[in-house]
Design a protein that fits this description.
- Helices cover 46% and strands 11% of the residues.
- It is α/β, with parallel strands linked by helices and 277 residues long.
- Strands 4-3-2-7-8-9 form a six-stranded parallel beta sheet, with helices on both faces. It has a two-stranded antiparallel ribbon with strand order 1-10. A two-stranded antiparallel ribbon has the order 5-6.
- The structure holds ligand PTJ.
Length: 277
């Protein structure tokens, strides 16, 4: 595919460039053709959410960072869409959390599993676990049941962006704490995971890495202290700049304890009332 000739000044530049990453993923054998459809669905929800990282997503990101940091054996489960969109950030998250990266795909293909592994290695991963065909989690029938014995099989926390509902439910039934990223707050995955970040993977992943790094270095309070207190009210929908950095993260000092059902309710209300834009 020719390099993009979309100028950065195009009003839909980010969206179009992201779309090209998914197309390139298909051409490279990383992403399933079905992934194009999944991406389009994500785009539609993102459009309705104003293509912004809302306060409910920031709260889920902060909770995810804490849970990943406290995990004994965290694993990042990578599929074809996540890899094409964010290989570098997934590797960075593995580095920050000490989590293992494991390939796990819905649409069965040994070649694509290998292509995903290669792309993660190119992005700097030191180790990428493959699902194999010897160990499986329970409560699921299709290809996604296969796991690595040193990865998802023994994981206590699994970060799995763009998951399908069946496997998310199976992971939970297998005793895992599941953190997902899904722009659709109505999906079965969103409702089944313990933590759902309703945001675009490309926006929230750098923020999640940053949140974990802040926990690692003990700078979380400083980041929050610099934040705009007006954003702290969890009952108000706040659009946070797409390129938010540590100094623009909202202050959650007085936010109530994390609740995934509240996150989903706020995301759904934002969608239905059109207040995302
Ligand atoms: O590589 P494979 O074979 O594992 O296939 C991966 C896909 C994503 C194709 C597969 O898991 C699938 O079909 O997923 P679903 O059931 O379509 O769910 C994808 C969910 O992710 C949908 O709810 C989309 O709204 C959401 N989504 C799509 N793109 C993004 C997203 N959420 C966050 N960020 C995105 N960029």
């Amino acid at each position: 595919m020719p390099a993009s000739d979309v100028p950065p000044t195009h009003p839909r530049y980010l969206s179009l460039i992201t779309r090209e990453r998914i197309v390139a993923g298909v051409e490279r054998g990383v992403t399933s053709p079905h992934g194009l459809i999944a991406h389009g669905r994500g785009e539609a929800f993102d459009y309705l959410l104003g293509e912004a990282t809302h306060l409910f997503a920031h709260e889920a990101i902060a909770e995810a960072a804490k849970v990943l940091k406290a995990a004994r054996h965290p694993v990042i489960s990578v599929n074809g869409n996540a890899c094409a969109l964010a290989a570098g950030d997934l590797v960075a998250l593995a580095g920050a959390t000490g989590a293992k990266l494991e390939v796990n795909i819905f649409h069965t293909s040994a070649e694509r599993e290998q292509a995903i592994r290669n792309m993660l290695l190119e992005a700097g991963a030191r180790e990428v676990l493959m699902p194999g065909r010897t160990h499986a989690i329970q409560h699921i029938e299709h290809n996604r049941k296969w796991v690595h014995p040193e990865g998802i099989l023994i994981a206590d926390v699994v970060f799995v962006p763009l998951e399908d509902g069946d496997r998310c439910g199976a992971l939970v039934q297998n005793g895992k704490t599941v953190i997902t990223v899904d722009l659709n707050p109505l999906s079965r995955t969103a409702k089944t995971a313990q933590i759902t970040i309703v945001d675009n993977l490309t926006r929230c992943l750098p923020l999640l890495v940053q949140a974990v790094q802040a926990l690692n270095t003990g700078t979380t309070d400083n980041a929050n202290a610099n934040a705009d207190n007006a954003n702290a009210n969890a009952n108000v929908n706040v659009n946070v700049n797409v390129n938010a950095n540590a100094n623009s993260l909202p202050d959650r000092t007085h936010a109530p304890l994390y609740s995934n059902s509240r996150t989903l309710a706020e995301a759904e209300r934002t969608l239905r009332t059109g207040t995302g834009n």
